[in-house]
């Protein structure tokens, strides 16, 4: 199910003062006959912020300011302006969010000519990324998946630091290798190669997720290589050198070091954002080397419709690659898991890419989440993605 910009914009702007609105906690506070700082203190002590009441989420800020806004990352929606509660230093805005939404945001306030942006001091819930942290609003119905948290019953796999020499990239490629808990040399394992590996481990809890999903028999025992780029914008933007490294250097090295299943059916190449471009472009350069691709929120920007991609010079090689692929699509793997958050600007390109890939005869599993372009969104898709690409015994029992 999707949300159009017009409909979503209406949802995130102020909620009309209907009878339902008057029942909100902030409206009960507004009606208090003796509203003062002590009453506000008690109100904040009783409620988590943002206050979630059905479809309505109330954002709050306490402090002196001339203007306060919520800066979010939801496609097509204006920033949310807070109103000051008369006679207090409490600011508020009540907005509606669809069931199951997760939104990362920051507050921004103005005093005179000075603007300041910061995480919500009333909300302890934070999401981290390579560029910093943000506050998080969990709308009604959103639940952090239990398989993303450490499980004492799940035997931990092992992370081993490795280094692979690369003539193609002219550097040592440092990576971490995940070996499942019961790894043994006499078995044969599937292989997952992950772009932006340290970020997946740090911000998407991917080792914990792997431990849990293997333990729960949702995902087959798999060896996983977490790669890190050198110059990310160059190596991941349809780089022939990066593709040569994957196919001609990394795979032979891994096959010499690990007991892997032979052939492409046991291999998957994975990435998010620019990393998804790197995975698809490498597959185009050497089709069917990997039997499956796992592409999350791919930066599949194109200009065969329109001329301005809006991404700046770093996206120019990506646009040329995607334009060529869309003009002459071909089957480069047997299966592709493709996903995107409906609140991110890349939702239209990813929906279009799902259609293009299906036209080549690829088995495409496409998933949308009520979230944005961030690492926790990609984390929350991992069970669906990995259990579809490399299903464990549990999947075969029930399907």
What do you see in this structure?
This protein is α/β, with parallel strands linked by helices and 399 residues long. The protein folds into two domains: 5-138, Immunoglobulins (Immunoglobulin-like, Sandwich), CATH 2.60.40; 146-398, 3-Layer(aba) Sandwich (Rossmann fold). It has helices spanning 5-12, 25-30, 37-46, 197-203, 206-215, 232-235, 240-257, 274-285, 316-327, 347-359, 375-380, 382-389, 393-398; strands at 51-53, 56-62, 67-72, 80-81, 83-84, 90-96, 102-111, 114-118, 126-129, 132-138, 158-166, 171-179, 190-194, 222-227, 267-272, 292-296, 335-341, 363-369. The strands form three sheets. It has an eight-stranded mixed β-sheet with strand order 11-12-14-13-15-16-17-18, sandwiched between helices. Helix 7 (240-257) packs across helix 8 (274-285). Mean pLDDT is 91; it is low at 1-21.
Average pLDDT, to the nearest integer?
Answer: 91
Enumerate the spans where pLDDT stays under 50 for 5 or more consecutive residues. Answer: 1-21
- What characterizes the major β-sheet? 8 strands, mixed
Number of strands: 18
Spatial ordering of strands, largest sheet: 11-12-14-13-15-16-17-18
The total domain count is: 2
Shape: elongated
Q: Termini distance?
A: 24 Å
Question: Given the helix and strand composition, which structural class is it?
Answer: alpha/beta
CATH architecture of the largest domain: 3-Layer(aba) Sandwich
> Number of DSSP helices?
13
- How much helicity do the residues have? 25-40%
Strand content: 25-35%
Query: CATH class of the largest domain, anyone?
Result: Alpha Beta
Could you name the CATH topology of the largest domain? Rossmann fold
CATH homologous superfamily of the largest domain, by name?
A: Alpha/Beta hydrolase fold, catalytic domain
The rounded Rg comes to 24 Å
């Amino acid at each position: 199910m999707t949300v159009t910009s017009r409909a979503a914009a209406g949802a995130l702007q102020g909620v009309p003062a209907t009878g339902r609105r008057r029942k909100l906690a902030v409206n009960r506070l507004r009606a208090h006959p003796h509203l003062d700082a002590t009453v506000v203190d008690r109100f904040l002590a009783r409620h988590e912020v943002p206050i979630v009441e059905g479809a309505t989420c109330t954002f709050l800020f306490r402090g002196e300011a001339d203007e306060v806004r919520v800066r979010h990352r939801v496609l097509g929606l204006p920033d949310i302006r807070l109103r000051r509660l008369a006679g207090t230093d409490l600011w508020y805005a009540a907005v509606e969010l669809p069931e199951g939404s997760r939104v990362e945001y920051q507050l921004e306030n103005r005093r005179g000519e000075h603007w300041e942006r910061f995480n919500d001091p009333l909300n302890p819930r934070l999401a981290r990324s390579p560029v910093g942290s943000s506050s998080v609003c969990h709308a009604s119905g959103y639940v952090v998946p239990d398989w993303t948290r450490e499980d004492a019953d799940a035997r931990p796999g092992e992370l081993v630091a490795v280094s692979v020499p690369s003539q193609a990239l002219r550097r040592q490629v440092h990576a971490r290798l995940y070996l499942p808990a019961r790894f043994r040399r006499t078995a044969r394992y599937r292989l997952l190669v992950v772009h932006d590996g340290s970020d997946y481990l740090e911000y998407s809890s991917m080792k914990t997720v792997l431990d849990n999903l293997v333990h729960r028999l949702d995902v087959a025992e798999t060896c996983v290589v977490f790669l890190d780029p050198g110059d990310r914008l160059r190596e991941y933007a349809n780089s022939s050198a990066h593709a040569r490294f994957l196919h001609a250097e990394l795979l032979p090295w891994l096959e010499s070091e690990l007991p892997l299943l032979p052939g492409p059916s046991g291999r998957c190449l994975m990435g998010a954002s620019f990393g998804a471009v790197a995975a698809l472009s490498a597959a185009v350069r050497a089709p069917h080397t990997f039997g499956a691709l796992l592409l999350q929120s791919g930066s599949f920007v194109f200009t065969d419709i329109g001329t301005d991609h809006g991404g700046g010079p770093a996206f120019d090689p990506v646009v040329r690659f995607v334009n060529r692929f869309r003009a002459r699509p071909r089957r480069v793997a047997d299966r592709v898991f493709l996903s995107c958050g409906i609140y991110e600007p890349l939702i239209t390109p990813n929906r279009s890419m799902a259609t293009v890939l299906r036209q080549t005869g690829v088995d495409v599993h496409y998933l949308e989440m009520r979230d944005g372009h961030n690492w926790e969104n990609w984390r929350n898709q991992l069970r669906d993605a990995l259990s579809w690409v490399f299903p464990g015994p549990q999947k075969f029992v029930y399907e």
